Amino acid sequence: MVPLTLAEHGALAKGLLPAAIWDFFEGGAGTEWTRRANLDAWRHHVLRPRVLVDVSAPDCGTELLGARLTAPFGVAPMAYHRLAHPEGECATARAASEAGVLLIVSIFASRTLEQIAAAAPGAPRWLQLYWLRDREALTMLARRAEQADYRALVLTVDAPKVGRRLRDLRNAFALPADLTAANLDPRLTSSAGHSAAGRSGIEEHSRQQFDPTVSWADLAWLRARTRLPLVLKGVLTAEDARLAVEHGVDALIVSNHGGRQLDGVPPALAVLPEVVDAVPAECPVLVDGGLRHGSDLATALALGARAALVGRPVLWGLAHGGADGARAVLDLLREELLDTMVLAGRPTLAALDRDALAPWPPAAAAPL
Ligand SMILES: Cc1cc2nc3c(=O)[nH]c(=O)nc-3n(C[C@H](O)[C@H](O)[C@H](O)COP(=O)(O)O)c2cc1C
Ligand SMILES: CC(C)CC(=O)C(=O)O
């Protein structure tokens, strides 16, 4: 079966992956209300199509922090791609490069930063960091990222600890013995291979390594150690967006971590407009969580996102088809976006503005 939707890519992957790995990829925190809300959020908007517009040459190409992209999206940072495919992040990097979209590599990548860069020379990629207790390790990662031509550092700020993921607890999820965080000292993450009482292996090693004391004042420390732009991932309020700009952050990713951290927070899409309105136009705002169709991407752009990120569907493609599978997912999203732009009579990204959307269901008319 050639998958015609991202959901069909998911079905293929689910049929192939061990259940505990599928659950690690798919699961959220707590009741998974936020994970489900991410998927539903798109349905609270409908497109307002315009007609009799020349749509013969739709164009969704864009530029993001100086990088040219064929479409305004990228691959969200996700740990351990080798759980999906033996080539891991090297395959994902080839897929993103061939599709012409951004790749954000996780600090918990299962291939080295240098291997990933060599798999797709010249392609736009950023490195995501968690704030580790070991600042020397952070400094080294920032340096290696610069040397291997990563174009920005993304600091994920929604994870002072890992959320309580019940699927992983029930499965006593731990990494296979041959799989490690390839860019960190193996002693830092060795506990990911064991689940401890009441904690998954992932929760165990992050509990030991994440620094929960970090605060706004610490950003200056990181800035002083890199010339790369700094992006914050995991901002969900206008207050924090304003603080980020005051602290010199170059871009924001509105995200609830795919519903994997604090269960009960709103879908990122719902708070995107308040964040966009809180920051100057020069500060690009990205969004992720639950994006499963090119028309979702159109909705995110119309609400003011400069680009969006897609997470789990890329792992689905990777799991069933390696680099080709991941590429098929990314190409499908771009084709669906272009289709949406043509059929909505909005063939440029500029035409995908707030006017392109209406709330759904429509607000009830006021009684006379
Ligand atoms: C398996 C998996 C691993 C993830 N690992 C990371 C990570 O290492 N760093 C991070 O900032 N976010 C991580 N995320 C969150 C994603 O970057 C992203 O916010 C989320 O997956 C987007 O939602 P979507 O999967 O519904 O598209 C992970 C998500 C998944 C599914
Ligand atoms: C190793 C984990 C902490 C990676 C992550 O952020 C996630 O699984 O959501």
Automatic annotation (TrEMBL):
Amino acids binding FMN: 77-79, 106, 128, 130, 156, 233, 255, 288-292, 311-312
Listed GO CC annotations: cytoplasm
Classification via CDD domains: alpha_hydroxyacid_oxid_FMN (cd02809)
Ranges where the FMN hydroxy acid dehydrogenase domain occurs: 1-362
InterPro entries named among the record's database cross-references: Aldolase_TIM (IPR013785), Alpha-hydoxy_acid_DH_FMN (IPR012133), FMN-dep_DH (IPR000262), FMN_HAD (IPR037396), FMN_hydac_DH_AS (IPR008259)
Cofactor(s) in the UniProt record: FMN
Keywords, sorted A to Z: Flavoprotein, FMN, Oxidoreductase
Pfam families, alphabetized: FMN_dh
Domain of life: Bacteria
Family: Belongs to the FMN-dependent alpha-hydroxy acid dehydrogenase family.
Protein name (record): 2-hydroxy-acid oxidase
Organism this protein belongs to: Kitasatospora griseola (Streptomyces griseolosporeus)
